[in-house]
Amino acid sequence: MTETILVINPNSNDAVTRGIDEACAPLRMPGGPAIECVTLREGPPGIETQQHVDGVVSPLVNLVRKNEAGYAAFVIACYSDPGLHSVREATRKPVLGISECGILTALTLGQKFGVIAILRQSIPRHLRYVGALGVTERLAAEVPVGLPVAELADESKTFARMVEAGRSLRDDHGADVVVMGCAGMARYRKPLQDEIRIPVVEPTQAAVTMAIGRVRLGWQT
Q: Would you tell me how many other CB atoms lie within 10 Å of the CB of residue 134?
């Protein structure tokens, strides 16, 4: 039986979940592990505030506990890594957060990483996390596109703003790698990288890649 990684979108936006699922497609391979993407129905339409982050912790823990036996690893697909440590306490299976994995992956691709945020008010929350990870000196800057999660699927609004933010991170702040600061941006990774010509990390892909390694190697907590 093929082992399966469960990727959880903690907001209730199915369009975001579909984008995450598409981003995982290159990581699906014969022999697995399989990758399944689900939406947390109890979540808000977009996780945009600390209250949103705090509000999904209990539902995430409950979801993982309920499904622990059926999956080999879990990925929390929100750039704030909501409930990451609480969920890790609830299972011995690997639990990966996309922000942690995206940043760690970026550190292997360049000296200074920049982050494209959705909203300006998201940045202080992200900076606290960068500080907790101890990598503040490697952060070039974080630049917002000024769009809520629900509007990221609108390519006519989103992509041009992401290109502008990416170029600013590269040219004005010295970033040599960019991390996309929301799972809802997943569909834009390759075209954005082609436009700004430096590596672009899609953090759910980074987290799922690490989860595959953990499952294949049999690592647990």
A: 8
Please check the confidence at residue 221 and state whether its pLDDT lies above 70. no
Q: What is the CATH number of domain 4-98+204-217?
A: 3.40.50.12500
Mind listing the pLDDT tens digit for each residue in 113-123? 999 999 999 99
Separation between Cα atoms, residue 105 and residue 153, nearest integer Å: 25
The model's pLDDT over 152-186, given as tens digits with 9 standing for 90+, comes to 888 888 999 999 999 999 999 999 999 999 888 88
CATH architecture label of 100-202: 3-Layer(aba) Sandwich (3.40)
CB atoms within 10 A of CB 2: 9
Cα–Cα distance, 219 to 82 (Å, whole number): 22
The answer to whether 4-98+204-217 and 100-202 have equal CATH topology is yes
The domain ranges of the chain are 4-98+204-217, 100-202
Listed in sequence order, the residues at least 6 apart from 4 whose beta carbon sits closer than 8 Å to its beta carbon are 32, 33, 34, 35, 36, 70, 71, 72
Is residue 185 helix, strand or coil?
Answer: helix
User: Residues with Cβ < 8 Å from 157, sequence gap 6 or more?
Assistant: 147, 151
Claim: this prediction has a pTM higher than 0.90? yes
Element of type H or E holding 204: helix 203-217
